[in-house]
Every structure is written in structure tokens, then in C-alpha cells.
Amino acid sequence: MLTEHSVCAKIRHENLRIAVIEPLESSLGILPHESTSAVSERVSEEDDDVGEGQALSEDDKPVVDQFADLRKRRFLWYFDSYIQTIDAADSVISQERKFQRMPFESQGNTMDGHFDYPELRRRVVLLREKIIYETNNWLFEGLGVKKQELSIASNLQRQYEQIVEDLKRQKNFAVDLELVDTNPFLWAFTYFGRPMSHLDGGIFRFKIYISPRFPDEQPRVFVETPIFHIRVSREGVLCYSPRRTDEMRYHIEAIVAALEEESPPYDPRTTVHPEATKLFWGSMEDRKKYNRALRQSVEKSAEGP
């Protein structure tokens, strides 16, 4: 018998497959049924090509699909939600169960197929692996760009130096920045919780990965210090939105704002930690639980690695 539940179940499965997974597989060049090990081997070959000196030039810049880049960032944000959704559905829907035909479907306008959440899970995990490989590969590309003395490397170096000088002039002791191994495409960001704030006493370390194609490809920010926070996913991906995307100082500003904002407006697009979000926007008792969990992670951060 047709039920609202069966309609929603079918739409949920196909939304994940068609709207989330397949476009990213296409933009990342992932082949059908490709394994994580195959992706690793292929990325290693690409790294070797870069290391062997495939020359980049100012006039030979690849065209960046900025919407595909947005998809990748948002995918990292929502990865936990996708996995949670898949696992919940897989526990109640048997594998290989055929889709139920809906009354509004007709010949030539049907959504045929079957449920296969284990396969969706495999593909989602593989997508994350490939995006992380791609992000790490920016560092190798960046070293090549720096060696060739292309403008993006010197531009990022200047931006870094200007931001550091501005922080000193403003006597902003909450943020410490440095380049990792003098690579302008990898910034180490340390945040010190401000007194009398919900992060008071905490010490949180981040890595900011910057593409050689910045700002067409936007930075990806990973939190190395565990924190229970509505803007940080379980995998340590920070969700933030800069006022402008073309200068790194706006990204630093937005990272700090995402951490410090205590009463943000509700925005479902920023739901990157489902459990934290549920507590933060729940009852008064839920909010207390959220604050306790956040405070515990703040205190633990001060203890060091």
C-alpha cells in the first residue's frame, strides 16, 4: 500500500544518489565501483607528475568550476549528516528492495530502481577520501608554484604577512598564524579563547589549506583540536562564510566569528554537527547539555595533545 513514508524513502535515496553523489563523482573523475585504494594509487601517480615538474604558468591556468568547488566544501560540511541518514535508513530498509511505483509516475516518466544504502555509503566515504586527497595535493602543487615564483605564491605570502602585522597592531592575542614549512598554501591557525567567553581558556589549532587556484577554489579549514561545536563537524571540518572570498583576511575574520558567535541565527545550511545542532536549538535543558559538552572540550583543549 502506498504511504507517505514510502514516497519519502524513495526520494531520500535518490536525492543522495542523484543530487549529491553522482555530480561529485563526475567532477572528481571517480569511475563506477572504484575503490578507495584505486583512488589512492591514482592520486599518487598525479602527485608524481606534479613532482616531476609539470610546469605551471601565469597564462596557462586551468578553468575552475566554482560550483563544483562549492559542492566539495559543502560535502565535507555535511558528510556526517549523509552518513547518519544512510545508516538510519539502512537499518529499516532491506537491501535490493525495489522502489514502489507511485500513482503520479507513468510510462516514460518513472523512477525505477532499488534501495542500496550500503552502496551509497561506500560511494560517500570514497568521495570524502578523494576530496581529502585533492586537498592534500594542493600542498605539492603549491610548492611547485612557489618554486616557479608565480604571482599567487607571492600574493599569498604578502597577505599572510599583512594579516600578522594587523593582528599585532590591533593587539589581537586570540589568533596566532604561521606558515607550515614556509609554504604559503598551508597556514597553521591557533585560536586562544577570549576571557569571559564560552571558549575562555581553550586552545584550538587549525590547518588552512589554500589552493594554487585561489580564490577560484576556496580554502578548506580543518580543526585539529577536538571541539564539540555547532560549526565544527565530527570529522573536524569548520563551517564558515566570509564576507568576501578573494582575500584571506576575510577568511580569518570569518573563522573567528564562526567560533565566537554565541547566539547565531538559525540557518539549516550550517548544520554540520547534527548532535550539537539538535542540542543547541532544542529545549533549555538541551542548550545546557550543549554548553556543558562545549565547555568540557574547551577544558580538554587546554591540557594539550
UniProtKB/TrEMBL annotation:
<dbReference type="InterPro" id="IPR016135">
    <property type="entry name" value="UBQ-conjugating_enzyme/RWD"/>
</dbReference>
<dbReference type="InterPro" id="IPR000608">
    <property type="entry name" value="UBC"/>
</dbReference>
<protein>
    <submittedName>
        <fullName>DNA, SC012</fullName>
    </submittedName>
</protein>
<dbReference type="Pfam" id="PF00179">
    <property type="entry name" value="UQ_con"/>
</dbReference>
<dbReference type="InterPro" id="IPR050113">
    <property type="entry name" value="Ub_conjugating_enzyme"/>
</dbReference>
<feature type="domain" description="UBC core">
    <location>
        <begin position="151"/>
        <end position="305"/>
    </location>
</feature>
<feature type="region of interest" description="Disordered">
    <location>
        <begin position="35"/>
        <end position="57"/>
    </location>
</feature>
<keyword id="KW-0833">Ubl conjugation pathway</keyword>
